[in-house]
Design goal:
- It is globular, with a radius of gyration of 18 Å.
- The chain is α/β, with parallel strands linked by helices.
- The chain has 8 helices and 12 strands.
- 41% of the residues lie in helices and 22% in strands.
- The strands form 3 sheets. A 5-stranded parallel sheet has the order 2-1-3-4-5, sandwiched between helices. Strands 6-7-8-9 form a 4-stranded antiparallel sheet, covered by helices on one side.
- The chain has 2 domains: 2-120, Rossmann fold, CATH 3.40.50.2300; 129-220, Orthogonal Bundle (Arc Repressor Mutant, subunit A), CATH 1.10.10.
- Residues 127-222 bind DNA.
- Residues 127-222 form the OmpR/PhoB-type domain.
- It comes from Leucobacter exalbidus.
- Residues 2-114 form the Response regulatory domain.
Length: 223
């Protein structure tokens, strides 16, 4: 597995690359947003992305990567404001850690996002497609069509929708969505679910398709 480390601080980057190397990961380190976009290749399994880059904001880098790749992205930054986390998630990031972080936690997050990415790329044993009121889910190819038109979802948005689509008409608790999509039981991702659901509703232009069950979770309706 190769991890692309996007960090302009040499001291931070050197320590991180050394730790990842001792943990068994191959790494490539770049110090700018453009270099990150150019370095991303088919063998890259995860991106650790700093936001304070010298040539462009990390949020823009995340958004541009998402335009052509579904590689897992973990934003690692000193920006701790909730608004920054929301921006990162909306741009397509899979996870967000605030500096200074525990490298063991970072390693666990890397393992979680790459594990989910590999699992998502493999067909499961259940249904491979589902159509609800003009919205077609193709779980194998990770494609969503609304009235025959492709909908541009981020990988995490598709993951959230896929969890709900596996249980059509059933209320899926928030903690289950967090566990299946983010691989954690941390309730801090509740806000992330809200952000992703709002974005999905807007993109498919069917706000009623995902019903919010207050205090419990969400339900995919129309079945």
């Amino acid at each position: 597995m190769k991890i692309l480390v996007v960090e302009d601080d040499d001291r931070v980057a050197d320590a991180l690359v050394a730790f990842l190397g001792r943990s068994g990961y191959a790494t490539e380190r770049v110090g700018s947003g453009m270099a990150a976009i150019e370095a991303l290749g088919p063998d890259t399994e995860a991106v650790l992305l700093d936001l304070g880059l010298p040539d462009m904001d990390g949020i823009d880098v995340c958004r541009r990567i998402r335009g052509f790749s579904g590689v897992p992205i973990i934003i690692a930054t000193a920006r701790s404001q909730v608004e920054e986390r929301i921006k990162g998630l909306q741009a397509g990031a899979d996870d967000f850690v605030v500096k200074p972080y525990d490298v063991r936690e970072l390693l666990a997050r890397i393992e979680a996002v790459t594990r989910r990415s590999r699992a998502a790329a493999e067909p499961g044993d259940g249904d491979i497609s589902l159509t609800i009121d003009g919205v077609h889910f193709d779980f194998v190819n990770r494609v969503l069509l609304a009235d025959g038109v492709p909908v541009d979802l981020t990988p995490k948005e598709f993951d959230v929708l896929a969890v709900l689509a596996r249980y059509p008409g059933v209320v899926v608790p928030r903690d289950r969505i967090i566990r299946e999509v983010w691989g954690t039981d941390w309730s801090g991702f509740n806000r992330s679910i809200e952000v992703h659901v709002a974005s999905i509703r807007r993109k498919i232009e069917r706000e009623w398709l995902i019903v919010t069950v207050r205090g419990v979770g969400y339900r995919l309706t129309g079945v």
